[in-house]
From TrEMBL:
UniProt keyword annotations, A-Z: Dioxygenase, Iron, Metal-binding, Oxidoreductase
Protein family (similarity comment): Belongs to the iron/ascorbate-dependent oxidoreductase family.
Protein name per UniProt: Fe2OG dioxygenase domain-containing protein
Gene Ontology terms, MF aspect: dioxygenase activity; metal ion binding
Length: 314
């Protein structure tokens, strides 16, 4: 009898109090992070934060933000792809997204807030900045665990120092037309993306054998990590970027927040990840160069993880 693999997004519990570097719990969790990412390019993380109250506050911000008039939202302009306002095309957009680049810097959150609310909105600014800091900490923990599992701890400082963050605030509704695709299949052009959302399902992950797995957070402290094309190139293809899409087919609105990380400087796989079994797959490249290449590609290829190969594959 043929047995079929039942795919499930791997879950890693980061909420335990005894998850301290040096402990056996830490080491086995580091390996679970690496194994999950190598197999699926994505993980569900169950954390001890945010509190239920903070989770609701963050989602409340999104509701408040997207209620603003279209002409105000369109002031969120950024020349980099998928960094500014998206969704203006239709009068009833299925998907809207807005971005705060360098969101761990409070001044950037303040600039965005003033653009949206010229009379000020301290609650928005404080909450969105605190959220960005929380997820940046989570990403650092994850990078530390991944590096440790590969024996690459010495690269941690330089990796973190060259990381910047883009926070994207996202809204999805069911389409009134035939198609209800909120965000068609794609891989992210980030190093890594960390997503958090309300209770409405829509995110789907494609496995390496082409099966789509729907994701629904198991609690308000759940996050999904998806590895982007830059994470794949950095890992010399040990980790494949995660192909995913969003389809909302209920009346309820889906709100999500994505934190996308980018690397400055020259990107290349650590030499420890290159050996006879894993010959080098990419030439050194710049993250911005990949984004420019993305802009120059036609719409059909935009979602494709092969783009990074076309850009800097050996
Ligand atoms: O809404 C989500 O959970 C995912 C959004 C997404 O894939 C993206 O912004 O790249
Ligand atoms: Fe994405």
């Amino acid at each position: 009898m043929e047995s079929e693999t039942v795919h499930k997004i791997p879950v890693v519990d980061l909420s335990g109090e005894n998850l301290k570097p040096g402990t056996s719990c830490w080491r086995s969790t580091c390996n679970d992070v690496r194994k999950g990412l190598e197999e699926y390019g994505c993980l569900e993380l169950v954390c001890s934060k945010p509190s239920l109250d903070f989770h609701h506050q963050v989602l409340g911000l999104l509701e408040e933000l997207f209620k603003l008039p279209q002409e105000i939202k369109m002031k969120n302009v950024n020349p980099k792809p998928a960094h500014g306002y998206m969704g203006k095309i239709s009068t009833f957009p299925i998907h809207e997204g807005m971005g705060i680049e360098y969101a761990t810097n409070k001044e950037e959150c303040q600039k965005f807030t003033t653009l949206m609310w010229p009379d000020g909105n301290d609650h928005f600014c404080e909450t969105v900045h605190s959220y960005a800091m929380l997820v940046a900490e989570l990403q650092k923990l994850l990078v530390m665990m991944l590096l440790e599992s590969y024996g690459l701890e010495k690269h941690y400082e330089s990796h973190i120092n060259s990381t910047t963050y883009l926070l994207r605030l996202l809204k999805y509704r069911r389409s009134q037309a035939d198609t209800n695709l909120g965000f068609k299949g794609h891989t992210d052009k980030s190093f890594m993306s960390i997503l958090h959302q309300n209770h409405v399902k829509g995110l789907e992950i494609r496995t390496q054998d082409g099966e789509w797995i729907p994701y629904l957070p198991s609690s308000h402290t759940s996050f999904v990590v998806v590895v982007g094309d830059v994470g794949m190139a950095w890992s010399n293809d040990r980790i494949k970027s995660c192909y995913h899409r969003v389809i909302v087919n209920t009346e309820e609105v889906r709100y999500a927040v994505g934190m996308f990380s980018f690397l400055t400087g020259e990107i290349m796989a650590p030499e420890e990840l290159i050996d006879d079994e894993h010959p080098v797959q990419y030439k050194p490249f710049q993250h911005q160069g990949l984004l420019d290449f993305y802009v120059s590609c036609n719409a059909q290829n935009k979602g494709d993880s092969n783009m990074v190969k076309a850009y800097c594959g050996v």
